[in-house]
Design a protein that fits this description.
The protein is α+β, with helices and mostly antiparallel strands. The protein is 56% helix and 8% strand.
Length: 193
């Protein structure tokens, strides 16, 4: 058995917002002969440092399917925030503190810095992005019709059905009940929120 730790290189990728994205990124890397050790939301782990040519091939391949490599710290921080919120909302990943503390802990930066950076770069607040993610998840659950509005409110961390309904109407212009009846109001892909 070899006691030497193998070199590992992480690449950070923009626009990876779902498990299908991870699958597509893995397939694209394998097409160009790269064998990722691990693919997760927003990141890929490779065994070795890719050459400059391979890095360009990776970038071109990912670009062809709507992704891009992140090469600066600010963009990486924004993607970490987005991916954390998507994990919380879309995957029901529980957090045991409030959102601001969770993000500050996860990213390792002061929340006021994260908040200012996010607003400056994205043109919206972290809280608004979080609300939009929750409303898109509520739309999805309403379309499926498997849960009551009360269950949806609880699953998404709302204090009451009224709170969910108020935010839902502010964002969509419809009440959840009306949305469920109409269903023509198309949902948005989470990477376009």
């Amino acid at each position: 058995m070899n006691d030497k730790a193998e070199p590992v290189r992480k690449l950070f990728i923009k626009n990876m917002v779902c498990d299908r994205c991870s699958m597509v990124v893995r397939q694209e890397l394998e097409k160009i002969g790269m064998k990722p050790l691990h693919v997760a939301l927003g990141e890929v782990t490779l065994r070795d440092e890719p050459s400059t040519d391979n890095l360009q091939r990776i970038s071109d391949s990912l670009s062809s399917v709507g992704f891009s490599l992140i090469d600066d710290k600010k963009s990486l921080t924004i993607e970490q925030i987005k991916n954390a919120i998507i994990d919380i909302v879309q995957r029901g990943k529980p957090i045991y503190t409030n959102l601001s503390e969770h993000l500050a802990q996860l990213v390792g930066r002061d929340y006021s810095y994260l908040s200012n950076l996010f607003s400056e770069v994205e043109g919206t607040t972290i809280e608004q992005f979080y609300i939009l993610q929750k409303i898109e998840k509520a739309k999805e659950l309403l379309v499926y019709g498997e849960l009551t509005l009360s269950q949806i409110a609880s699953d998404l961390g709302y204090s009451s059905v009224a709170h969910l309904s108020n935010q839902f109407k502010k964002v969509t212009g419809l009440t959840p009940s009306h949305f469920k009846k109409v269903k023509d109001n198309k949902r948005k892909p989470i990477d376009r929120i």
